[in-house]
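WARN retry 2 of 3 for item q-0093 after timeout on previous attempt; input resubmitted unchanged.
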Amino acid sequence: MTNQKKSINMKLHKIFLALILGLGMMTSCEDKLDITNPNQQTSGTFGYTANDLEESVIACYNHIRMEGTYARVGYNIDVMRGDEAWNASQVWYRPFDDLNEPITDEIGQWSWRDWYYTINVCNFVLSRCEGDNASLSQQMQRIKGQALFIRGLAYYNLSNYYQNPALITDYGQYSSLDGLYISNHEEGEENGFAQYDRVLDQVEADFAEAMTLLPSRDEGGQWAKGRATCGAAAGFYARALMQRHKYSEALTVLKDIINKRYGSYKLMANYGDNFREGPAYENNDESLFEVQFLDLASQGTDDEWTPVNTSANATQGHAIESNFGPGNYGGWADISASPWLYNLFKAERTTSNGLDPRLYWTIGTYEAEWEGFEYGNKCYTENMTPTEYVVTNNSYGGLPIAKNTNLRTGMYDKVVTGLHCGINLRLMRYSDVLLRAAECENEVNGPTQQAIDWINQVRNRAGLANLKLSDFTSKDKLFEQIANVERPKEFGCEYGRGFDLLRWGFFYSADRLQQLKEHGAFNFWTKADYESGVYTYTPKDAVDYATCSKSSYDSFLPGHEYLPIFQNTLNDNPNLTGNSANYDTDNSSYFSQKGWTVHPVVNL
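OK item q-0093 returned
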C-alpha cells in the first residue's frame, strides 16, 4: 500500500470514528434532555405519589371557596331560598328570593359550574386511590377520605339546588366541563327525582366511607384544623339521611356524635365566637366543618371569582359580608333579615329578662340593652342611635344582617367589598347536631324528654328558660317549635334553611306555603318617607302579609323550589334533561308517594 493510500485510509478512519463518537454524544445528550418538565405536569404524569395527591386535596378545598360554591352566590342562593331573609337590592338576588329563576339566567348556573370543577378534582384524587382501603397507608386513607367528603358535599349541594344533576364518579368520564356529556336520567323517567335519589345514594355512600377513613378532630390534632374529619363526615351523613326522611338512621349517627364517637364537640359559651375572624375563634370546639378563608391582614389583592383564575396574589376571602353589608357602610346592600325573624327574637326574653344574645350577632339593630354588651351599639365603628335606623338598602330599607360580617366586631369602619371577608363560614355546628337529634327523636318516638333535653342545651347557651315536655302534647307541636322557633333563632340568615324547607315539604302544603309567605313578608322603608309621614311603621315592626309591600314567595311557581338547569348547559349536552323548575312541574306527588307527610301548622 502506498503512503498516499495509507494517508487516505487514516483520514477516513478518523472521520468514521468522529462520526461514531459524535452520534454517541448526540444520543447521550438526547437521553439526558429527555426529561419531564415539572412545570408542565399533566394528569398522566401527576398524582402517583402521596405528596402529589396532598396538593390535589388542597385544590379540592380551594374549589369550595369559589363564587358558585361558598364564596358568594353559592352560599347566598340558599340564604335567599329561606324565609328569614329577603332580597333588599331588588336586582341581583331577586330571582332567587322570588323562587322564579329563569332558565336563561347564567348566574343560576354558577353553582353548577363550580361544584363540577370541585368534583373533577375529587374524582382525580380518587382515581389514584385504588385498592382496598385497608391496604392504603394512613396518609392515603386520609387523602381518600377528604376527597370523598368534598365530593359528597358537592353532590349534596347540586342535588338540593338542581334536583337531577348528572352523576359523575369516574374521572375518565369527563368530556368537557361546559357540556358534561353524560345523562342525568334514564329512559321512561317522568321526573327528576329518580336521579335525585341516585345522586343522594352516592352522597350517603361518600360520607359513610369518609367516616371510616378520616380521623376525629381529637386524633388528627393540628392536622385536623380546617380539614374534614370523621365528625364532619358523620354530621353531613346525618344531614343527607334526613333529606329523605331516614330519621331513625340519622338519629343513630347523631347520637354517636353526641357520645363523642367521632370526636369531642361542645357549644361555645359565647354564641358570637362562631362568627368572628381569627385563630382564637375559628375551627373551635363547636365547629364540625367550616370553609377556611384568610384573615384580612394576610390576604392578597386579587379577587378570584371563578375556578379558572390562578392569581398567586388572590385575596382568599369571601363576599358574604359585601352582600349583607348596609349601603351606607360600603356594602352592596343585597340581602336583609326578615321582620319575622327579628320579632321572633323579641318575643321571648332570657331568664334574666334580657334579649336573646343571638339577636345581637344575627341582625344589626340598635337595642337599648346592647349598651355594654359585647361591642355595644355600633355598626362597624359608628355609634348607632334609637332613631337613626341603619337599613341595608337606602331605597328599599331592610334590617341589616350582622352574621358572618364584621358589623359587630369593630375590626374596621366599613365593608371591604369583594372577596375580602376573612370570617370562616361554619357550615355545621354542634348546635345543629343537637337540634337535628331532637327532631329525629321526635319523628321516631314522638315528644320525649330526651328530645327536650337536647333542645334545652341550645336554649341554655342563649340564657332562655327550659322547655317542658308537658307543653308538647303531639309530635306536630314539638316539630313546630323546632322548625319555626329554635332553628331560625339559632341559624337565622345562615346557609341551610332552604334545605330544611325542601325536606319538610313546606312547598307542597297550602297552609305551609301561606306560612312561608307570612314569614317572608316585608315593607319597603326610607327615612325620608318615614319623616314626612308617608308611613308610620319602622323597619323593625311586624309585617301584616295582607298589607305588606311584598313577600319573598308571592311569585313562587310549583317546581321552583329548585333552580332550573341553565338552558345553555342543556343546549351543550343533548343527554341532559331539565328539572321541575325548567318545566314548572309540581313535585308534591313525589313527596306523598314516598309516604312522607308535611306537618300541619300548629299554633304554639
